[in-house]
């Protein structure tokens, strides 16, 4: 399965993380490429209809929202998680990008 970045902004976000976190993020993105829809906890979790999150654990807790589109995984939006719940602003941003791509 191919993994694509929606935009360069997400790539810049990943590169801005601490070195150890970047390595973990790239490893989990590789797992998504290998396992696709079959990737589950603790690396991936369904958040909403058609929207999933990659979970990067460690010193920095990072979440990267993604979706499946035409057989590819498309990485939509990432953020550093600072609380138990997903901030509405971050979730809404990912949902807006999902709707843009799917035309819903």
Give me the secondary-structure topology.
Blueprint: E1 3-5, H1 8-16, H2 19-35, E2 44-48, E3 51-56, E4 62-69, E5 72-80, H3 88-102
Parallel strand pairs: 1-5
Antiparallel strand pairs: 2-3, 3-4, 4-5
In short, what is this structure?
This protein is an alpha+beta fold.
The coarse silhouette is globular
Number of helices: 3
Sheet with the most strands: spatial strand order: 1-5-4-3-2
User: What oligomeric assembly is this protein in?
Assistant: single chain
When the domains are counted, the total is: 1
CATH architecture: 2-Layer Sandwich
Q: Separation of termini?
A: 24 Å
Largest sheet: 5 strands, mixed
Query: Beta-strand level of the residues, as a percent range?
Result: 25-35%
Descriptive tags:
104 residues, 30% strand, alpha+beta, 3 helices, globular, single chain, YaeB-like fold, five-stranded mixed sheet, 5 strands
Written overview of the protein:
The protein has 104 residues and is α+β, with helices and mostly antiparallel strands. It has one domain (3-102): RelE-like (YaeB-like fold, 2-Layer Sandwich). 39% of the residues lie in helices and 30% in strands. The protein contains 3 helices and 5 strands, in the order βααββββα. It has a 5-stranded mixed beta sheet with strand order 1-5-4-3-2. The chain is globular. The two termini are 24 Å apart. The model has no long low-confidence stretch (mean pLDDT 93).
